[in-house]
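Review the following:
>
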Amino acid sequence: MSSLEERDRDRDGGVAAPAPGSSSAGAGPAGAGGAGAGPEAAGAGPGAGAGLLLQDDPGLRRDGPEPDPDQPPKKRPRIPEGESGKLEERLYSVLCCTVCLDLPKASVYQCTNGHLMCAGCFIHLLADSRLKEEQATCPNCRCEISKNLCCRNLAVEKAVSELPTECTFCLKQFPRSSLERHQKEECQDRFTSDLLLDQNLFQPLSMVTQCKYKRIGCPWQGPFHELPAHESECSHPTKTGTELMGILGEMDQSHRRDTQLYNSIFSLLCYEKIGFTEVQFRPYRTDDFITRLYYETPRFTVLNQTWVLKARVNDSERNPNLSCKRTLSFQLILKSKVNSPLECSFLLLKGPYDDVRIKPVIYHHSFSNDTNETDYVPLPISDSVECNKLLAAKNINLRLFIFQVQK
């Protein structure tokens, strides 16, 4: 018996496999078992025995798990065009803001270590630090950040502008640099006829696609491609004069307030005594157990009188840094002594070098030695984002107009 037969016998539990051409292949019980295995043996080639030996012998079996058939090969294949979104997703995670984890929509700022922040989050961090009386720090590396220490990253801004984004109306993909033109002029599903975009927030404002008969009360709003069909079936042109007069009366009320404001401003410009000056609100804090942030201007002279402006955040709310809604209110204080009541109208507007949006509101007060300060009145900024812009600045620069009412 050869050594190969002895090895096969030890493996099979003491029964030796018959050698080719041996007479024992058909004799006894072992022969019956060998005959049962005959078809497999007949189908095996000359190297079948070695293949079975390598497959069954534990000593010669390869270590480690068997390869996964779904595992990609070692060499990375070329990414097909249809799968290019994977690269874009990786770029999203690299170029996103470290605070909101979203792609910046406008300016991109970076700390001294290169961590990126969108303009909105950067301003919000500076505003929070002002409210908490702390030094603003980068959320990633905790290095100090400020408008002087941080700079814009123009390369990231250009890279983000080339990444695709989804149209709000038709849900198709377009580069961010061309999305504004598409939504304003080309998209057939757009809800805006004259789309106005906030340059800082890149959000559509409230001018929607409306019927041309809106001036006589048609309330329709919808996609741009449905506008011709609606206008051809609109029922407002067939309304009677009595019905239209009722509709126009309601619409006039919304315009009357704006007209009254403009007329009031023009009337104030006709006053004999008009004064204006640039005012700078500087932050200061109280000595209370819980300090609060206030603003105050240095004394200034307008209309031969000495004045001071004060401002506060969220009407002296306990923790304004915990509130998402932020407002500023101010009061005008007369520091001079007067012989007779001084009746004045006044309003605050943005300074010549600021980009904050302030809606003009005219306030009135009669100043005397006993009533030398007004109540706190709201600073008419549009929203909390504009308030954060003011809080993030080192000082708040505005322009004050005072009109003295002549009796």
The two ends are 135 Å apart (CA to CA).
